[in-house]
Amino acid sequence: MLFNDHDLRQIDDAYVESLSIDELREVIKRLVKDLKEARDRLNQNSGNSSRPPSSEDPWVTAKFKDPDEDSDNPEDTIEIDKNDSIDNDESGSEVEDRKEPAKEDTDAKPTRKPGKQKGAKGCGRTEYPPITATVVHKAEECAACGRKSDDKSEFVGRTGHYEIDIEVGNEKDAGIRVTNTKHIYGDTTCPCGHVTQTKPQRCEKESDWDVELTEWHLVGPMLMSFICFLFCRMKMSRPRIRELLIEWLHLPLSVGTINQCIHEAGRAGAPVVDQQLVEEVKNSGLLNVDETSWKEKIVSLWLWVFCTQTVVLYIIGKRSLKTIEAILGSSFAGWLMSDGYRVYRIYKNRLRCWAHLLRKAQGLYESLDKEAQVFGKQALGILNTLMEAIYKARERPGEDLVKKYKEVLDEFKALCEKYRDSMHEKTRALAVEFLNDWDAIFCVLAHPELPLTNNEAERALRHWVILRKFCYGTRTQQGSRAFTVLASIIDTCRKRNISPWNYLAGVISERRKGNAAPPIPAASY
Length: 525
Prior knowledge:
Layout: H1 5-10, H2 13-18, H3 21-42, E1 63-64, E2 78-79, E3 133-137, E4 154-168, E5 176-189, E6 195-197, H4 221-232, H5 238-249, H6 255-282, E7 286-296, E8 299-307, E9 312-317, H7 321-328, E10 335-338, E11 350-352, H8 354-365, H9 370-395, H10 401-404, H11 406-419, H12 425-436, H13 438-442, H14 455-471, H15 477-495, H16 500-512
Parallel strand pairs: 3-5, 7-10, 10-11
Antiparallel strand pairs: 1-2, 4-5, 5-6, 7-8, 8-9
């Protein structure tokens, strides 16, 4: 680069006006050269440089376009796979046929969907772990006369199934033990002559789920909870989970079974989220809210998080007011900490995250534009001064910060009014942001006990943002629902200092029997 930051700071309107024509031409040539080099650096990706694919967003698609063409016609741009190489002819030049759009083939078959195809030969289990226990499900009482079953009641086995589970050790007996329980169901004959049948229990069908929730399942509750641990906390894909189970536990579960376990666990915990956690979020006194982009196959959605002192709730939906109101309604009475997204403005008791404002002000202060530097420096000074006063007020409550800093705030507001029509885009945007959210930003002066940042929600999202880099989001609505249910239960349990995996196994066990899901216990410290 020909110009460094020190050089660019000196180039302003007055400097340009002072140059002669020849000098101006030379400056323009140098600026154009630097601009092209900067543009080349900006356009670098894993398809045209040594940057790794992990440095890009998972939904970014590589493009190939002839640099000599300036046409905006979408047919001039064709998508290519980043792992493909461009064929070369004998002279070493690129084959131009790759640039021609493919002709439509009306007889072409539809694109093959990933995974096992319909009608393809499956693979069954070849061997089971040794049976560790046999459970005979004898009727507890006669369905006709109500007499309790005893040793005299005749039982004839009719059907059964195997349930593979794990037993987790404790401080005295560490380790994991695989169990294979044989369950037998059949007919229990009462002395009155009535025959009562027993069979595996199941949860009634629910409209939002197409995965069954029944005791007739090969995978036991604790093993299913362990699979959810590997996916949600260890960020492992289904094939990698299968590999771990085979190599370390000698359990050859299929990828489809593992996926079904994750969805079934999500369905089991859904009532806990819909009834208990949503209600606690609505009634919270202080709520942190944030959102990040999320992909559901080809649909661009957002992962939302709602954090209280004892609850973490996740949902996947559009970035709109409708999504917020589906959780909070329109009359949320508590304090709402958020960023500057405008849909939050419908709530009266709102707080703004100062960390966002400080970063934007720091960016202006480091800008090459002199006007931006002045406003950024002023904003940083005001925010840092007020933060120091708020921290001191928390240690020595009783001081009226609103009255003390009224004159300072009035001067800063006049400064924002001055720069709201600035020619510099980011300067103008930050000034308008301060004016639009003035009360939400500075109401903390009247309530210094309230937080200054939205770090609680941002920290909660960080783990799932890392997971997004591995799984590229979800593929179906049911998959998105199962993911948010599991994430909500896991993080809420951790907030309350209880084991999410033991609790999740208990929920799965009860829901398979058709019973209500037990609520998450209160915090245990």
